[in-house]
Amino acid sequence: SDAIMPHKKPRQETSEESDERLEDNDNDEDFEDVESLDRQLARDMNELSMEERQNVMQMIHGLEGLQEETPEFLEERLNALQIALDYASTTNEDREAYNLAVEIDA
Questions:
Q1: Cα 18–Cα 8–Cα 21 angle in degrees, nearest 5
Q2: CA distance 54 to 48
Q3: Dihedral, CA atoms, 73, 74, 75, 77, nearest 10 degrees?
Q4: Are 52 and 6 in contact (CB under 8 A)?
Q5: Element (H, E) at 69
Q6: Per-residue pLDDT averaged across 57-79, rounded?
Q7: How far, in Å, CA of 71 to CA of 98, rounded?
Q8: 66-95 average pLDDT score
Q9: Which residue has the higher pLDDT, 36 or 27?
């Protein structure tokens, strides 16, 4: 099976290539049903290192390339949140909801 190497990003398959590959596999007896496909996927995933599996799971769930949460990054994001909260507390339409939230939190 083709393992995804952590140091290389796999080439993105075009939709035409994907359609062609799927057509080629229509007669493939290796994957007669969903259960056999699940078993093959499990075997392939088990052949990967823990880091490779984590990378695959992050890609599947759209988490690839997340920002590392350094102290500087957290401070920047908290400052942005405070600015948004300050703005919400001064606009007429959001003031009532903001004041209620502050009251509940107290």
A1: 15
A2: 9
A3: 90
A4: yes
A5: none
A6: 86
A7: 27
A8: 83
A9: 36
